[in-house]
Design goal:
This protein is of the alpha+beta class. The protein contains 14 helices and seven strands. Strands 1, 2, 3, 4, 5, 6 and 7 form a seven-stranded mixed sheet that branches. It is globular. Keywords: Sigma factor, Transcription, Transcription regulation.
């Protein structure tokens, strides 16, 4: 994963890490708009912030693990920035300054909150289908992020929101998480990060080293697999999976899965590992116990995904049910993470119901 690039950041003769890329300082807004913003013109402020909004939103998601929390944090950060814009003198990068404000806002938001989790974090896998479980409302669940909301579709950007990476970030304390994302993902220097977080370069180097140690086992890189397969084959896999589920085709579904496949469904606490357990769940619940399904192919967290709609008799239509993110190994599905809930659909630009 991204963290594996740390080895290229260490300098044998220096205590300061040098990132692979560095944000440019030439991203200052038009001087007239900056002057107007500093004088209290909110329209001018909106114009200078708008080009950076999507990447700041993605940054807040990496920090917080939820698009809804990211939206709240970004709104709060932009309010803070607006109130302090008169103190931005333009000597450095507006981008760096806004990232500083956004990072501090996210750290404040994280204070006193529990980490975002997936069912695998709560306990062992279930061996057989559990049909009487209830959602865990006391858990702060990790959420999906639509690819359509990313600032770009580059390999590096998609890799920086992969589900395994976002989940691994949740294991890090706030300062380590911020340092890792700012350095490894966004390319800020240790000196810039120290200034953003109002600390020393030694402290940032220490935080990066501890973060690297914690994430050392997070070696999965979906972008390598997806690029090797190519878009057409990836789409065939996700379409075959969604079709098998919607048609109740157990054999077709099982043929797509690896032997060590996992399936989890936050906010339900139970999850399944291995072909036997996942097959038992699939046959007992979605294939035979739920009713009629419809689907739309989409992308989330830089990975293939399917949005599922379940028939609702009272509504007389198929209502939004889940966003299922697929993690592949070769051309088989290794992990299915089904984020249940209609609240996920608006950010993907998906309808609430389909016929």
């Amino acid at each position: 994963m991204i963290v594996n690039r740390y080895d290229r950041g260490f300098e044998a003769e220096s205590s300061v890490m040098t990132p692979k890329t560095s944000p440019g300082s030439g991203d200052l807004p038009h001087k007239e708009d900056l002057a107007r913003a500093r004088a209290g013109d909110d329209a001018a402020f909106s114009r200078i912030v708008e080009p950076l909004r999507r990447e700041l939103r993605a940054h807040c998601y990496r920090m917080l693990g939820s698009i809804h929390d990211a939206d709240d944090a970004l709104q709060d950060a932009l309010v803070r920035a607006w109130r302090a814009i008169d103190r931005f003198e333009g000597r450095g990068s507006l981008r760096s300054w806004l990232y500083s404000v956004a990072t501090r806002t996210c750290l404040d938001s994280m204070s006193g909150r529990s980490r975002r989790a997936l069912p695998i974090d709560l306990g062992p896998a279930s061996l057989h289908a559990v049909t009487d479980t209830a959602p865990r409302e006391d858990v702060a669940w990790l959420g999906p992020y639509p690819d359509s909301a990313l600032p770009s579709s580059t390999y590096e950007v998609r890799e920086s929101v992969e589900l395994a990476f976002i989940a691994a970030l949740q294991d890090l304390p706030g300062n380590q998480r911020a340092a890792l994302v700012l350095f490894e993902v966004l390319g800020f220097s240790v000196g810039e990060i120290a200034e953003m977080m109002d600390t020393s370069t030694a402290s940032i180097n220490s935080a990066l080293q501890r973060a690297r140690t914690t994430l050392a086992k997070s070696t999965d890189r979906q972008q390598v697999t997806l690029r090797r397969l190519g878009d057409d084959r990836v789409r065939r896999v996700v379409t075959a999976y969604a079709t098998a589920l919607s048609e109740g085709d157990a054999d077709g579904l099982v043929a797509l899965l690896t032997e060590d496949v996992t399936w989890s469904m936050p906010p339900l606490p139970h999850w399944y590992r291995g072909l036997a357990a996942v097959t038992d769940f699939a046959v007992t619940v979605p294939l035979t116990g739920c009713g009629s399904w419809r689907y739309r192919i989409t992308r989330a967290n830089g990975q293939p995904a399917a949005a599922f709609y379940l028939w609702d008799e009272a509504a007389g239509t198929h209502l939004a049910w889940s966003i299922t993110v697929l993690t592949l190994r070769d051309d088989r599905i290794r992990d299915l993470t089904s984020f249940l809930g209609r609240q996920h659909f608006p950010s993907f630009g998906l309808p609430d119901a389909i016929a």
